[in-house]
Amino acid sequence: MNLSEKINNIQKTLPAGVRLVAVSKYHPASLIQEAYDAGQRIFGESHVQELVAKHDALPKDIEWHFIGHLQTNKVKYIAPFVSLIHAVDSERLLIEINKQAKRSGRTIPILLQVHVAKETTKFGFTPDELLNFMENGDWRQYTNIRFSGIMCMATNTEDEALIASEFEQAKTLFHRIKEKYFSDSDTFNECSWGMSGDYPIAIEHGSTLIRIGSMIFGERTY
Ligand SMILES: *Cc1c(COP(=O)(O)O)cnc(C)c1O
C-alpha cells in the first residue's frame, strides 16, 4: 500500500467530526509532501526545530500541530504559525504561550493534557489537578490563548478494556469542564486521543482528533 492509500483508508473510516493528524515526526519533508499531495492537511510534530524547518520548506496551507512536550523556552519559535498545541501541562507553559501569542498578534488554540494512563510520567495534569486549575480561574487572564479541549495518551498495553476506560475518563472530564466553563462558547470542542495502536477505541470514546504516525509513515528511526 502506498502512502496515499494508507491515508485514504484511515480517512474513510473516520466518522463525521473526527479529524486525522498525520504524525510526521522524524520523517522527511518529501514524505509529508507526498501525504499533502494525497490531500492530507494536518500534520503533527513533536520537536520544535524539526517543525520550524518543515514549516519553512512545505506548503503554507498545512495546519501544523505540536503534539509533544513543549519546553517553555521554545514556544517563541512556533508561536507565529502553529495551529494547535496539544499537550499543555503547566501554568508556566500557558503563561509563555500567551505571551508569545500576543507578540505574534495571534490567539493560539491549545489543548490541556490530562494524565489518565497507568504509566507514571511527569507530563500532564491529573484529573483532580485539572479540575482545580479550571476552578481557580487564572486561565481566564490568558486572553491570547484559545482553550480548545483536552488531550491524553492511554497506557501502552494490549488490554483494550483498560485503554477504553482511560479514554472514557478523559471524555467524562472533557464534558464536565465544557459544561461548567464553556457552556456559552463554542471553543472547547476537541478531544485529542488515539494513536496507531488504539485509535478505533479512541473514536468509540469521544475522540475528535486522532494522532497517527507509524500506521501512515512506517516505523520511525530515531
Ligand atoms: C509519536 C506520537 C504519536 C503517533 O504515534 P504512532 O504510534 O506512531 O501512531 C501520537 N501522539 C504523540 C503525542 C506522539 O508523540
Describe this structure in words.
This protein is α/β, with parallel strands linked by helices and 222 residues long. The chain has nine helices and eight strands. It has one domain: TIM Barrel, CATH 3.20.20.10. The protein is globular and about 50 Å long. Strand 1, helix 2 and strand 2 (42-45) form a beta-alpha-beta unit. The chain has helices at 3-11, 29-37, 48-57, 75-78, 91-103, 127-136, 160-181, 199-204, 214-217, and strands at residues 19-23, 42-45, 63-66, 84-88, 108-113, 145-151, 190-192, 209-212. It has an eight-stranded parallel β-sheet with strand order 7-6-5-4-3-2-1-8. The chain starts with a helix and ends in a 5-residue tail after the last helix. It binds pyridoxal-5'-phosphate (PLP).
Alpha-carbon Rg, integer: 17 Å
Estimated share of beta-strand residues: 15-25%
Rounded mean pLDDT is 96
- CATH fold-level topology: TIM Barrel
Percent helix, as a range, is 25-40%
Q: Termini distance?
A: 23 Å
**What is the string of helix and strand elements?**
HEHEHEHEHEHEHEHEH
**Architecture, according to CATH?**
Alpha-Beta Barrel
Describe the strand arrangement of the main beta sheet, using strand numbers.
Answer: 7-6-5-4-3-2-1-8
Low-confidence stretches: none
Domain module tally? 1
